[in-house]
Amino acid sequence: MADLTTVALIGIYFFVLLGIGTWASRKIRNTEDYILAGKSLGFWIFTILIVCSICSGMTLLGVSGFGYTSGWPGIWEQIFVPLAASFCIIFFGVKLNAVGKERGYMTVQDYLAERFESPRGMRALSAVSGILVSLIYLIGQYAAISIVLVWIFAIPHWQALLISGVIIIAYTVIGGLYAVSWTTLFQGGILILGVLAMAPFVIRSAGGLTHINTVLAGIDPNFVEPWFPSPVYASYAYATPEFLFSFAILLMVGLACAPHVINNVLAAKESRYFKWSPLLAFGIYAVVMFLVKFTGFATRVLVEEGAVTLPDVVNAQDFAFIVGVEYAMPNMFLWGIFAVIVLAAVMSTTDRLMLTIGTSFGWDIYKNLFRPAASEKEVLMVSRVAVVVGAVGTLILAINPPPMLAWLIWMGIGVMLATFAVPLLAGLYWRGATGAGGIASMATGLVAAGVFGYWHKFVAPLPMHFSFFALLLSLLAMVVVSLLTRKNSPEILDGTGTGWFIQSGGVRGEAERE
Question: At a CB cut-off of 8 Å and minimum separation 6, what does 65 contact?
Answer without folding.
Answer: 296, 315, 317, 318, 319, 320, 321, 404, 405, 406
